[in-house]
Amino acid sequence: MLIIFIRTLITYFTLVVVIRLMGKRQIGEMQPFEFIVTLIIADLACVPMSDVSIPLIYGVVSILALFLLHQLLSLFEQKSLTVKKIISGRPSLVINKDGVDITELKKNNIGVEDLLESMRTSGYFSLDQVDYAIFESNGKFSAMESGENPSASSLPLLIVDDGRIVKRNLRFIGKSENEVAEFIKKQDGKLKATEVLTVDGNGRVYMKERNRKYRICRIELTEGLSW
Amino acid sequence: MVKSIVSMIAVAVILTVGAIYETNFVKKQFAEFSVAIDCVYEKVDEKTATEDDVYALQKSWLEKKRYLHVFIPHNEIKEVDLWLAESIKLVRDEKWEDALSKMEVLKELAEQIPKTFKVSPENIF
User: Fold this and answer.
1) Distance from CA of A68 to the nearest CA of B (A)
2) Residues 39-58 of A with CB under 8 A from B
3) Which one of A90, A174, B2, B92 has the fewest beta carbons within 10 angstroms of its own beta carbon?
């Protein structure tokens, strides 16, 4: 029993560390340690149930050990903010007044496309529609609407993602890589330093460069282009 | 909060008491079984063992394994069952050398199985 307990303990904490390192996109509405319980409890119950060569008590002990660990972590989490930060992490501010914070996104293994997806799920289609966006410690996405709240009439497409041109979207805006690079240059920027650049169907550009506040500008689109 | 703490303490107590009981129980059962094996082993070694001696050993094992099934993987129990069954046949046929080697395996099993319950790195990893 003690061995099963120790083995469960090691597995549990290994999973807590791994899930924490994986960032927020793996969690989805649960704290990391709750997610782990959900992840392994089914297997723990299933294996001794279906494999008659394993005593049932092996599954029961593991489940009780998990329960004990889960309760202990919940208790520590409630008692100490430091423990809470270590176990569950903290919310990540991925969009602030300056625009998208790519460093914070990277810390959580989230790409700009994932951010755009989360925003769309929340009903925001353009990055400048929100002043602040947060990935909560349980992986949920929260956004605070911009005061100006420019309503998006056309879906913005991601053209530059962390200094790299997203080639598959170029055909929608009818521009080549060189033309995009040229456009960035005209805006007094550099492609490598451009963290995010989106273009919507009206030619409205959201451009965020490293260490600079985001800018809204316009790009001339070929007539007849729409999406 | 109180409910949480009470449930945590209850589970901790169950696990601790269970672990202590399990270790002692398995150790005791196999210690008794080892003594019985030694007895039959000596008789086999002296070529005085009878089929009934091994049957008696098997009967005591069957009694123990009813409860050992709760703690020990059933395959390990099955292994003891098989070696015992073979021993009966060999003693019946008075094949002492072969019977002795089977008894040796049984002795080893009775010694090794409780060791798998010890808290040691090789058992944990």
Assistant:
1) 6
2) 52-55, 57
3) B2
Helix axes A81-88, A32-50, angle to 10 degrees: 60
Residue A220 is predicted with a pLDDT of 87
Blockwise average pLDDT, block size 10, chain B, 125 residues: 83 91 92 94 91 92 92 91 93 91 93 87 82
Give the tens place of pLDDT for each residue, A85-103.
Answer: 888 888 899 999 899 999 9
- CATH classification of the domain holding B16: 1.20.120
From the list B11, B75, B116, the residue facing A67 with the nearest CB is: B11
A5–B73 C-beta distance less than 8 A: no
The answer to whether A52 contacts B19, with C-beta atoms less than 8 Å apart, is no
Quote the minimal CA–CA distance from A57 to chain B in Å: 7
Per-window interface: A 64-83 vs B, CB < 8 A: 64-65, 67-68, 71-72, 74-75
| Number of domains comprising chain B | 1
Q: Looking at the complex, does the CB of residue A112 fall below 8 Å from at least one CB of chain B?
A: no
In CATH, the number for domain A92-218 is: 3.30.240.20
Token pair belonging to A173: 């805006």
Phi then psi dihedrals of residue A78, to 5 deg: -70, -30
Rounded to two decimals, the ipTM of the complex is 0.74
One-character DSSP codes across chain A: -HHHHHHHHHHHHHHHHHHHHH-GGGTSSS-HHHHHHHHHHHHHHHHHHH-TTS-HHHHHHHHHHHHHHHHHHHHHHHH-HHHHHHHH---EEEEETTEE-HHHHHHTT--HHHHHHHHHHTT--SGGGEEEEEE-TTS-EEEEE-SS-PPPSS--EEEEETTEE-HHHHHHHT--HHHHHHHHHHTT--TTTEEEEEE-TT-EEEEEETTS--EEEE-PPPTT---
CA–CA min distance A19, chain B (Å): 21
Largest CA distance in chain A: 73
